[in-house]
Design a protein that fits this description.
The chain is built from 4 helices and 3 strands; from the N terminus they run αβββααα. A hairpin with a 5-residue loop joins strand 1 and strand 2. It starts with a helix and ends with a helix. Strands 1-2-3 form a 3-stranded antiparallel sheet. It is elongated and about 65 Å long. The longest helix has 14 residues. The protein folds into 2 domains: 43 residues, no CATH class; 41 residues. The relative contact order is 0.10. The chain is α+β, with helices and mostly antiparallel strands and 109 residues long.
């Protein structure tokens, strides 16, 4: 009964459209890989049905890109307040101020 449920579950919850087959990094099993929530960076987590290992096969980058940092610095140097920069770019005002300090120390600002 459990094997039947495992096969049925894997047929329902694994997409045939995915090019890569998800496999466990610990036991290299390709069957019984279940979706198991998301990380803080919104990457899909999986759980191996065989060894009970939880893992993220393709991690998303956490943080801001260099282009986003440069855009925030441009807004700050144009006279926009840190609070307005934070609201416009959906981030904390402290990020903009911290990046401005870091770029000033490097001599890039």
């Amino acid at each position: 009964m459990l094997i039947l449920f495992d096969k049925l579950y894997s047929m329902c919850y694994t997409s045939d459209m995915e090019a890569e087959v998800i496999k466990c990094p610990r036991c290299n099993s390709k069957s019984g890989q279940w979706k198991n929530g998301f990380t803080k960076a919104d990457s899909q987590r999986y759980r191996c049905g065989k060894c009970k290992c939880t893992y993220t096969p393709e991690r998303k980058k956490w943080g801001y890109t260099e282009e986003e940092k440069k855009q925030a610095l441009r807004l700050l140097t144009d006279g926009t307040t840190g609070r307005a920069v934070g609201r416009a770019m959906s981030m904390s005002k402290a990020n903009a101020y911290r990046w401005a300090k870091e770029f000033a120390k490097k001599g890039l600002l």
